[in-house]
What does this fold into?
Amino acid sequence: MEIKELRHKLILDFGKFIEDDSKLEVLEGVFDAINQEEINSIIPNEHYNRVSEEREKYLSEKSLGSSWEEVEKRLNTKYGF
It folds into this structure.
């Protein structure tokens, strides 16, 4: 569908929606969602960057990992568990 046709269809549909009180609230919610500005995260971008870097290492198998048995053995040796 071309932009011009889409615009015309939306204008017609919008006219129908604003006549129906029950759909006005839904429309308001849609417009609120469209107009809502992105909320800044309390998590710093550096954290996301670090997670991304570590994920790339993991996916490329450059990251060394340990099996649960190896971790358990180290804990037993170090702490006597």
